[in-house]
Amino acid sequence: DTEVTQTPKHLVMGMTNKKSLKCEQHMGHRAMYWYKQKAKKPPELMFVYSYEKLSINESVPSRFSPECPNSSLLNLHLHALQPEDSALYLCASSPGPSNTGELFFGEGSRLTVL
Amino acid sequence: DAKTTQPTSMDCAEGRAANLPCNHSTISGNEYVYWYRQIHSQGPQYIIHGLKNNETNEMASLIITEDRKSSTLILPHATLRDTAVYYCIVSRGTASKLTFGTGTRLQVTL
Questions:
Q1: In chain A, fewer beta carbons within 10 Å around the N or the C end?
Q2: What number is the average pLDDT over the span A92-106?
Q3: Range B43-81 burial, b when 16+ CB lie within 10 A, else e
Q4: With an 8 Å Cβ cutoff, are B95 and A108 in contact?
Q5: What percent of chain A has a predicted confidence (pLDDT) above 90?
Q6: DSSP label at B27?
Q7: Strands (E), B3-109
Q8: How many CA atoms lie within 13 A of A50 on its CB side?
Q9: CA-to-CA distance for B1 and A61, rounded, in angstroms?
Q10: Are the C-beta atoms of residues A23 and A107 closer than 8 Å to each other?
């Protein structure tokens, strides 16, 4: 299994809602990542988890709350988002945080905030 | 991490080789060159990476100049399915800090 699975594929939420994005991999990878991609822009790193611990937070607003309950699962909890947070949210994984090889990306969750 | 410069867009006829250039003149000795591509509305896909030597895999070839200040990704026989945005990224080999630039939009045509 060489896949990173993200759910849901599409999410529409209001500014007062609380929702979560889920990412799962079963490749035994110990590093997992969240990227945000606005339309017609490159992906931007948000968070990195290494061995289930948050190792990098790229100054992301607190309305985005990541969680790594185990080595296979990564969540992104969303609360009080703004319309400008509408974007494609990409999850990725790699064997370890110092890996020199590839990042494996999921297909993304497309979020629309009304 | 060193910054990269890529052309905004390129066209290639189907069946021909697509040569995508990337300049990374400030690359340091321990930085790798990575290539990813992103087909519309999908997640980025790893293509290839290298440090000094040229590399080849089933998808593409990576040619790095001797001074390492530029590189070329070669898709030997482009197909319509290769239409995508191609990102050249320079990184110290820690996958945790891959910083995507604006990339090259490759359009493969009949």
A1: N
A2: 86
A3: bbbbbbbbeeeebeeeebbbbbeeebebbbbbbeebeee
A4: no
A5: 87
A6: -
A7: 9-13, 18-23, 32-38, 45-50, 55-56, 61-64, 70-75, 84-91, 104-109
A8: 11
A9: 24
A10: no
Residue of B nearest to A106 (CA): B43
Closest listed residue to residue A42, CA positions, set A84, A100, A90, A112: A90
Cβ atoms of residues B47 and B23 within 8 Å:
no
Nearest Cβ partner for B46 among A48, A50, A102: A102
Q: Are B72 and B21 in contact (CB under 8 A)?
A: yes
Q: Which among A88, A103, A107 is the nearest to B46, CB-wise? A: A103
> How far is Cα B62 from Cα B71, in angstroms, rounded to an integer?
7
Q: How far apart are CA B39 and CA B44, in angstroms?
A: 7
With beta carbons under 8 A apart, name residues in chain A contacting B93: 98, 100
Residue of A nearest to B42 (CA): A107
User: At CA A52, angle to CA A8 and CA A111, rounded to 5?
Assistant: 20
**In which band, very low, low, confident or very high, does the pLDDT at A13 lie, cut at 50, 70 and 90?**
very high
C-alpha distances out from residue A88 to A42, B43, B64, B68, Å: 11, 9, 32, 33
A54 to chain B, any CB pair closer than 8 A? The answer is no
Q: Where are the beta strands (DSSP E) in chain A?
A: 4-7, 10-13, 18-25, 31-37, 44-50, 53-57, 64-70, 73-79, 87-94, 104-105, 109-113
